[in-house]
């Protein structure tokens, strides 16, 4: 099976997470970061999840899952310690055409969580189609070294330049070539060298 890779906008969308232990916590965190409206169903929660609920970042209902909980959410994450409960959530979600991910159980997943490298608005996602999350994590660590935090700042600058070019009367073909040149490795290295020289000059004046 070939997966369809995409980055999804979840801001303001209703997302349900069933389970709030050490397995569910990082899934809840990722939904919060994405701006989703997060509802959690779990008898118990980690300290972090409880704090998010207390500060209003999520809604937590301390009770067992019920099928009616699936009336409304855009997607659901099943992260309980019961395979039977997780399977029930998956099948109930399927009946309602709701996307579902059962953590660490590829058989019951409509989508997978990739290993992600985040550098500001730059995101590099790695998936192994559920075959080896360990391999995905190893590749992520390698990419984190290759694409350091400076890429986030550089991407912001590229975005500003792109907006300026689209607002100008430059020839579209010339604009395309210029944008590709600006995104090249050579342009990145020049930008980093220039920034280093500026910082070095500032230190010399101190």
Helix-strand layout with pairing:
Layout: E1 14-20, H1 24-33, E2 37-45, H2 47-54, E3 59-61, E4 75-78, H3 83-95, E5 99-102, E6 115-119, E7 122-126, H4 133-146, H5 150-167, H6 172-182, H7 185-204
Parallel strand pairs: 1-2, 1-4, 2-3, 4-5
Antiparallel strand pairs: 6-7
Concise description?
The chain has 206 residues and is of the alpha/beta class. 46% of the residues lie in helices and 18% in strands.
Description:
This protein is α/β, with parallel strands linked by helices and 206 residues long. It has two domains: 100 residues, Rossmann fold (3-Layer(aba) Sandwich); 55 residues. The chain is built from seven helices and seven strands, in the order βαβαββαβββαααα. A five-stranded parallel sheet has the order 3-2-1-4-5, with helices on both faces. A two-stranded antiparallel sheet has the order 6-7. Strand 1, helix 1 and strand 2 form a beta-alpha-beta unit.
> CATH homologous superfamily name of the largest domain?
NAD(P)-binding Rossmann-like Domain
| Structure annotation, total helices | 7
Per the CATH scheme, the topology name of the largest domain is Rossmann fold
Total number of domains: 2
In helices, the fraction of residues equals 40-55%
- Low-confidence runs of at least 5 consecutive residues: 198-206
What's the architecture of the largest domain in CATH terms?
Answer: 3-Layer(aba) Sandwich
Total strands: the figure is 7
CATH class of the largest domain: Alpha Beta
The SS-based structural class is alpha/beta
Main sheet, how many strands, which sense, barrel? 5 strands, parallel
Reading side by side through the largest sheet, how are the strands ordered?
3-2-1-4-5
Radius of gyration, taken over Cα atoms and rounded to an integer in Å: 22 Å
Global geometry: elongated
Per DSSP, what share of the residues sits in E-state strands of 2 or more residues? 15-25%
Mean pLDDT over all positions? 91
Helices and strands, in order, run as: EHEHEEHEEEHHHH
What is the terminal separation in angstroms?
60 Å
